[in-house]
Amino acid sequence: MLTRRSMLAAGATGLAVASLGPTFAFAKTPGHKRLLVLVMRGAVDGLALAAPLGDPAFRQHRAKWLDTYADASKLDGMFSLHPQLGEIGKLYTQGDALIAHAVATDYRDRSHFDAQNMLETGGTQPYARRDGFLNRLVGMMAGEKMSAVALASALPLALRGKNPASTYAPSTLPQASEGLIDRLPDLYAGDEQLASLFQQAQAAEDIADASGMRNINRAKDAGTLAARMLSDPQGARIAMLDLPGWDSHAGQLRMLDKGFGQLDILMSAFRGGMGEVWNDTLVLAVTEFGRTVAINGTFGTDHGTASAALLMGGAVRGGRVVSDWPGLAQGQLYQGRDLRPTMSLEALIAGALGEHFALDSAKVMRELFPDRNERPVEQLIA
C-alpha cells in the first residue's frame, strides 16, 4: 500500500525501498478511457443476479425462491434483475449496463483458489502463469505510460507482473504532522527512487483525501474512492476492486440481498462520482464460477460452473442481455447440476477491452488469454 504514512513507516523501520511495491505512475490511456474491474470473489449465483423467469425449468428448480422476484424488474422476455439491484437496473434502462449470461472461464472444477487463479492470470491451467491479465493489458499500451491501481492493501494477482501497477488503501497508522510531511521532500531529494515514490504517494493521498473516503470496506466509500481515482485528470486509468463474500452455501436469500445491495450502492456512488467521464468508462464485474441450479439442504447453492457478468458504463452498448441461453431442463445442465457455459468469459473480457481501448481484440485475446481458440465477443462497446 503506497501512502505518505507508509513512506514514513518504511523509513522509521528501515524497510528496503523494494518493499514499497511497484510505482504509482499516473498517466492517460488512449482516448482517456477508464476501466474499473470488480472481482466478486466466492462465486456469484448468476441465476439470482439475472433470473431466467421465462425458463419453465428455472421455476421448477427454484420454486421456493420465486417470491424474491415478485417485484423484480424485467430485463427482457426471459430475464429479471435481482430486486436489490435497482440502481444498476436504471443503468440498464438507460443503455449503460449489459448482462452476459451463461459465461464461464475455461475452468471446470470447483476450487475457488484454482478458479480465481485462472481468472486473474488468464492461464489455461491453475498456476500456469505468474503475471496477471490486467498487468499484460498495461503492457499493451506501454507507450502511453498507462497507470493502474488496486484499491486494496496488497496487489492482487490480476495486476502483478513486469508493468507498473500499485495499490492504495487508507492507512491505519497514526496521522503524521503536516510539518514532518512538508520536510520529507527535502529529505528524499538526494535519492531519485525515494523522491519519486514519495511524489506518487502524495498524489494518491491527495486524490483520496478529496473524496473523503476512509473505509473501502463500506460500499459507498469504495465507489466514491474508485470514482475519484479514475476521474481525476492526474489519476489512474485502470482500477481494480475486490468484492468478497459470495459463497452462498447456506441462507442464500439473505446473503445475496446484502451482497447485491452493497454492489448497487457501490455502483451508484461510482456513477455519481465519475461525472462526464462516465461516458468514457467501462466497468467489468466478474466472478470465478457460478452455483448449482438446485437449492441445497441449507437453503443455499453449491459450487457450479457458468454464471453471469456485468458490463457497465457510458461506453457500453447496454440495455440488453447477451446470451446463448442453454436452458435449465435436466438434460441441458452441465454434469446434470450446473448452468451450462455457452460463452467464454475470457472472450467476453478480451472483446470488451479491445473495443474500449481501440485495440485489435484478437491481439488482446492472444496477449491476455493465450493458447485459446475462442474469438472475442463483439459489439459490446458503443
Automatic annotation (TrEMBL):
Protein origin, superkingdom: Bacteria
Keywords: Signal
Keyword Signal assigned: yes
A matching Pfam family: DUF1501
Keyword field contains Iron: no
Signal sequence annotation: 1-27
Classification via PANTHER family: BLL7424 PROTEIN, DUF1501 DOMAIN-CONTAINING PROTEIN
Record-given protein name: DUF1501 domain-containing protein
Species of provenance: Qipengyuania vulgaris
